Amino acid sequence: MKRFIQEDVRGFLFGSRTKYGLIFTILLYLLLIAIGFVYLYPLLFMFVTSMKTPGDLLNPMVQWVPTEFYIGNYLKAFRVLEYPSTLASSIMISVIPSVIQTAVCSLVGYGLARYRFRGKNLLFLLILATFIIPAQNTVIPQMLTYKSLGLLGNIFSLILPAIVGQGYKSAIFILIFYQTFQSLPKVLEEAARLDGASDIKIFIQIALPAAIPAFIISLLFSVVWYWNETYLTVIFLEGGIQSLPMQLSKFVQAYENLYPPGTVNIFDRLNEAVKLAGTFLNILPLLLMYFVLQKWFVESIDRSGITGE
């Protein structure tokens, strides 16, 4: 009897072959909480500080709980960023190329995964080279090419590379689709061909449903990378279209210009809460997109899962 009690206690604390023990579970949750804290702390600090009143910012006793719900900092940041028009421009220059890039990369990945042709390995190597070589090394010939085509300052300077499978970090998405279609059982395609299905019909009705998670991942990261990319965007768009990250980079100077020295309290020029409010407004659309697509991502795995043969 005593032996069975000892085994039960040992299994409860240290686990068994079928379940984790209490000690392992506690350590796992502590590790997850620590990792979550590292990632969430900057967001929490940014949001809490952006909600503080000028009095809260000067009061050392106020740390994490502001004395009141204050949105004045967001109203000022909203005005400086010209948020509605800048948000629309950001969506346009990030979503449109991302959708096109995802669709084209799926076609390229499917072709590499399912067809054999001469020069396939060389083509694969060149695709990888576009990811390994820094964009700064190719930006000058790209800029000269776009200038000769009259595309500088136009959104087509971002759309054209996406159409030909050379958008921002397209190589990663091609590899994602390549691995996805490689894992797709060929028996399904062979059965469809016996039924008289064409290659296009096989791609649309069999390959695409199985690649829904890859589509969501590629679209999500593509939008985020296009959204945050300012180096190439500034060069190719020549300031003709202003995105939120581009406007945010000029935020401090634009905000201080609203309050010239000697006209108002110097605190208005040094208000860090307004600057953090502008930063939070910049990442807010991405946070909302993450929350929405996370649900679809989990559901898409359940719908498109393929059992073994």
Which short descriptors sum up this protein?
309 residues, mainly alpha, MetI-like fold, 2 domains, 76% helix, flat, disordered C terminus
How would you describe this structure to a colleague?
By secondary structure, the chain is mainly α. It folds into two domains: 2-50; 82-249, MetI-like fold (Orthogonal Bundle). The chain contains 17 helices and no strands. It is flat. Mean pLDDT is 77; it is low at 303-309.
Number of domains: 2
- The CATH superfamily of the largest domain is known as MetI-like
CATH top level class name of the largest domain: Mainly Alpha
N- to C-terminal distance: 47 Å
Q: Globular, elongated, flat, extended or rod-shaped: what is the shape?
A: flat
Give the averaged pLDDT, no decimals.
77
CATH topology category name of the largest domain:
MetI-like fold
Largest sheet: none
Mind telling me which CATH architecture of the largest domain this is? Orthogonal Bundle
Write down the Rg: 26 Å
The helix tally amounts to 17
Uncertain segments are 303-309
